[in-house]
Amino acid sequence: MLYLQNEPPSQSHETRRALSAADGYLFLDLPEEALTELESIDLNDRNDAPVLLARTRVLLHMRRWREAERLAFRGAAEHPDQEEFTVQRAFALQQLKRGEQARNVLLAAPEWIRRSGILHYNLACYEAQLGDLNAARHCIGIAISMNAAMRKNAKADPDLEALWN
Fold it and tell me: Which of 92, 143, 144, 145 is 20 to 30 Å from 151 by CA-CA measure?
């Protein structure tokens, strides 16, 4: 799970504080407290990309897959420059056992998002789960070529276990 790293300067001090606190709670595996912090954010800031991303991450931590998928879908529509919404939506769909739809979300991503190693990594997971090991190998190869550190994660990822056996 990725945690907040960039805060746009246009947000209020209170919103930045709540996002930081929510991020800390999530890092400590306290998603309920993180959600409480996000609920304290002013209504005017709740549709900002960092707030929607933080809420999506919390919902994913809480395994509230449907809500996370809907929110990520909305976030991608409202903030198409934020690739994480696409990745998070696909992950939520995969958890809902909608692997083909998850794969299609990633395949329909704009070209600039396809340059992200994490997109190819997740696509490899979905392809492996759907039984297309050749496509999964191809995708994980691309992901690793973009970021060699992904090799270690891939070897320990249960979604990719079929590739290593």
Answer: 92
| DSSP, res 11 | S
d(CA 67, CA 59): 7
Count of helices and strands (H, E) across the chain: 11, 0
Query: Computed over its alpha carbons, how large is the radius of gyration of the chain?
Result: 16
Q: Residue 41 corresponds to which tokens in the numbers above? A: 């954010």
Count the Cβ atoms, other than its own, within 10 Å of residue 118.
Answer: 16
Q: How far is CA 97 from CA 26, 59, 129, 138, in A?
A: 25, 17, 10, 22
What are the structure tokens assigned to 82, written together?
């934020």
The single-letter code of the amino acid at 94 is Q
Give the pLDDT confidence score for residue 113 in this predicted structure: 76
In tens, the pLDDT along 51-73 reads: 999 999 999 999 999 999 999 99
**Which structure tokens are listed for 12?**
């209020």
